[in-house]
Fold this protein.
Amino acid sequence: MSSKPYNSSTVAVTILDKEYRVACSEEEQAGLQASAKLLNERMAKIRNSGSVIGAERIAVMAALNIAHELIQAKAELARQPVEEQMLDRLHEKVQAALAKIEKA
């Protein structure tokens, strides 16, 4: 979490039935809880599939899956402005074509 020393407290999160205490600012607590919940769900799903054994391996697989999703989401966000620009140009062309039709 953030390295801010002020407004810091310790929050308990549970991941695969094990409790971890994490120091974070009060503003980050909801995000920490949501992150821990996501990680716990992903790790439980991997553990319950039976394809990976051992908490460390499960954690690595969950981290890899989440990192992959993050990279995909960043790539999608990077493409979005290009797509918006293309839509804007297309909109301008359609408007110009409609204006020509109306004048004719």
Summary: Residues 13 and 35 are 10 Å apart (CA to CA). The radius of gyration is 23 Å.
